[in-house]
Each structure stands twice: as C-alpha cells, then as structure tokens.
Amino acid sequence: MNFYTDDHPIIACSTGTQSNTAIAVIRLSGFKELLSLQPFFSFSLNKIKPRFSHLTNIVFNDQIFDNGLMVFFPEGESYTSENVLELSVHGNLLNIQRILDIFIKNAGFRAAHPGEFTYRALKNKKLSLSQVEGLDMLLNANSNLMLTQGLDILQGELHAQYLALYDSFLKLKAAVEISIDFSEDVGEEESKKLFNYSFSHFSKILESLHARTVGNVSSLLSPEVVLVGQTNAGKSSLFNLLVKQNRSIVSNIAGTTRDYISELIHIDGTNYKLVDTAGIRESKDVIENIGIDRAFEILNRAFFKILIINPFETNSDYLEKLSGVEFDLLLISHWDKLDFQKKISLLDLSKIRVNFSASASFETGSIGPISGNQFLVGPMGPLKTGSIEPLHFSGSIEPVMKNGPIEPPSKTAPIEPLVKGLLSEKFHKQTANSPILLERHRQCINELYLKKTEFSSKISGIDDIAILSSEVNIFSHYLSELIGILSPDDVLNSIFANFCIGK
Fold first, then answer.
1. Per-residue model confidence as pLDDT tens digits over 242-257
2. Which of 220, 408, 482, 502 lies in disulfide reach of 14, CB 3.0 to 4.6 Å?
3. Domain holding 153: CATH number?
4. In angstroms, what CA-CA distances link 406 with 10, 14, 82, 397, 415?
C-alpha cells in the first residue's frame, strides 16, 4: 500500500455513498494550517472553537456550493492525531462529489484510500494494532457477538485485559531486575517472594484469556446453516420457507438444484448464511456431480446441519454417505401424506447421527403431531426408530426462544420457530464463554500460554538469575504482537483490505 508513506492531506466521504441521504459527513485530515482553508468557507476560521459545530457556507470563487456544519479537531486531539475537519453537508451523491472535487482540485487534497484515516491513527499511536483489528471486526460484524467483541477490543473489557496482561509482564520483568540489581538490599527471600507473586498474577490473567481461545471458532464468524438431502427431499421448499420468498426453484423433477444457493437470515442478533445444496444422488451429469461435491464441502464446514429425508423417495443406500456426519436436525418430510407411517417403518436410519428430529410438511410449514411412529433421539447418538414413541428433545440441546422453552407439539406447530430456536440455542451455547474470535489474537495467546507453561515446569530448577531474566524476556515478543506494538506488514495489508473509504 503506497499510502503508508504518503503524508498528503486526504479527504473522503465517511458516510454511505451508494444512495442519496439526508446528511453526509466529509472528513479532511492532514492539512498543516486550518486558516489555509479559509477560501472555502464563509465562516471565519479565526473564530472556530475546537470540537464545536459551526454553521457555514461551502464556497469557492464567490460561488456557494452548500450550507452545512463544520467541526474542527486540532492536531493531537483528533481520530488520526492530525488536524481534522469534518463537514456535515447535504447527502445528494452529486453534491458530495462536487464538494470533494473542490478540495481535491483546489486545496491540495487527494482522495483517501480505504482505511487510511485509521492507518494514520495507528501510525500516530492513537490506536494500537489490536484496537484496529477490533474496529475492523466492529465495522464488518455479522452478529451481536462480533459487534460486542469488536468494541471490547477497540476500547472495552478485552482491550483492558490485554493491557493488564502487559502491565503484569512489566511488573514480572521488574521483579527479575530487582533480583539482579538490588538483591543485597531487598534480600533473597523477599526477592523470590516478589517474583512468585508477580508470576502468579501474570499467569492468572493469561489463563483467563487462554480459556477463551479453546475450541474452533471459525464457524462462528460467518455461521452457515446447510440443508442436505437426496433429490426431492424438500430442501428448496424449506429454504424458501425460512427466507420467506420463492428464492429456490421447487419442482418434482429430481436434480432441480444443481449447485448451492444461499441467502442471509437474521435470528436473535446474528446473520446466518442459509445454504440450499444440490440433492445427493448417483448422477451421470458432470455439472450436477460438481454441485453434489460442493454440497459435501459446505456440509463439512457448516455451523448447523439439517438433514431432510423424503420417506417416499429415499434410497437408504445413499444415506450411507452421510453416516459419518453429526446433524443438528433431521426433518422427515411429507408427514401429512397417506402411508407416511408405513414408509417410515421401512427406512433404516440407524446410522444417522442427529441431535433432534421431527416430522414435517413444507407445504403447510408445520411439524407433525405426536402420534404413530415418531422419533426418539439420544444425545450425540445414532437415530433410533420405534413404534408409538413420542417426539422429544435430546439431552444435548435444549432450544430456547425469546418466549421460553420450545415444547413438543401436541397437535401441529410451525417449522420455522423450531429451526430458529435450535439454531439460536446452539449459537448461544457455543459463545457462552465469550470466545476470542480474531485468529491472530488467539494464536498469540496460545503461543504465550505454551511458553508460560514451559517456563512454569522448569522455573524451580533455574538458579542463575540471568537465565531467569532471559526466559521471562521471551514473553515480550508475543505480548508485543498481541497488543499491537509490533505491526507486521502482512497483517496490516490483510486488515486494511476490509476497511471502507472514509474510515
């Protein structure tokens, strides 16, 4: 990125630029003197009061281009730590571009690159690298979890814990230095006591952070809900039911969906990517087989897996391909058709692993009543079929909606609350300990924890204080990376690629 070493004053619209809006905010940063911009404003810049709004006309060559508010943030007190001027103007896209052009063509500004304002804040030490990553997460979040953690890393609880960890390391290092330089004054016993206390405090904070890195969080960043089944199982019907529109083609012709399609659904503060996959079957169609292969790829990485079976058309041999997969939900479709119970009794579902199951009709959008041959699901075990067994929830998942626990239906019930309830409950359970989501942070914490564990195992055998000091200093590198004292270029490139213009 060339702008890393560019000190030109920059300008950008920091609000939406895709459609007309009532108000737009234009941000200017990096100019040397505020008075140099006087030709562009009717308000006297000698009278401007920092951090206060002032009404002004935007002018050039005696022509008025707009009327709006200006706020000045002086060097050292702004987001970028440079002189910053923010203009609130009318948000017509043509008006915004015209104002940008005035300053670019006549005042020595250039258009800012994506993330350049934040990069300057990083360069001028207004933000650390970890805070920039938190801002990136905040701006690109697709769940309340990511919003909260992004803000926590930027200026909240998690950022405070990182700083507390670094502060405890400095005290640990100081305890070692005291043992080297002032051992005769302090005494060996007191020096050892101070070191042990400092190391214990450092370890406690690190262990608390490490507990939040346990487990795989990749599926939580952009959780996918995948619908899987053989052709004509009803996947596309369920997909349309959940997205509330006829997005996927529904047909009684097998193999209608030849590749996956996806839409976002919003549930309890989280955006999930709902994926309708190609029907699983033996096919000689090359394109269809590619779609089936993709279905398995998506299935393997998905956060929530739904298997749909049509008992009237299911080939049990093909279900063998799914025997190694653990499904969150099994829906047996067409419960409202004649001979449904008879068709179920002929199915061999003993190798299907599922947490919850129900009979369903996608035409009516309902779960079947408790009668006849239903399904008994054990926690994390294979599905069992039985005669006249009631539908009930497994011990491993207890779905909860906003209005309380989901109860097994006594008659019929809508499918949508069941699916969304199970999905929401799984997400809340897996995020109950507020896991750290940023992979770089997780890696730094895990490496630091490993070094601390190794150090703990041999600390009693170290008699030489110089060796002890060297071992403690190893922590410094990982801590510097975690809080962003070190800023590798590849990390910077990855982060700022996600930023929008004007931030």
1. 888 765 544 444 444 4
2. 502
3. 1.20.120.430
4. 55, 44, 55, 11, 12
Place of tokens 């653990």: 326
Per-residue tokens: 84: 């910053």
490 falls within a domain: no
Domain end position, chosen among 90, 125, 160: 125
Single-letter amino acid code for the residue at 252: N
User: Are 115 and 193 within one domain?
Assistant: no
Specify the pTM.
Answer: 0.70
Task: State the Cα–Cα distance between residues 132 and 144, nearest whole angstrom.
Answer: 18
The tens digit of pLDDT for each residue in 259-274 reads: 568 898 898 889 999 9
| 305 and 279 share one domain | yes
Residue 348 CA to its chain's centroid (Å): 39
Q: How many CA atoms lie within 13 A of 406 on its CB side?
A: 26
Regarding whether 245 and 186 lie in a shared domain, the answer is no
Domain presence at residue 146 = yes
Q: Do residues 203 and 255 share a domain?
A: no
Whole-angstrom distance, CA of residue 128 vs CA of residue 480: 10
Residues 330 and 398 in one domain: yes
- Distance of alpha carbon 476 from the chain centroid: 28
* 478 assigned to some structural domain: yes
What is the extent of the structural domain holding 177? 132-215+436-484
Tell me, what DSSP letter sits at residue 279? P
Question: What is the structure's pLDDT at 306?
Answer: 93
Are 27 and 12 in contact, with CB atoms under 8 Å apart?
yes
Share of the chain above pLDDT 70, in %: 77
The number of domains in the chain is 3
Q: What is the pLDDT of residues 465-481, one digit of tens each?
A: 677 778 888 888 888 88
User: What's the token pair of residue 419?
Assistant: 């699916």
CA 346 distance to own-chain centroid? 43
Strand, helix or coil for residue 75? coil
Residue 55, beta-bridge partner list: 69
Average pLDDT over residues 215-220: 85
Element (H or E) spanning 471, and its range? helix 465-483
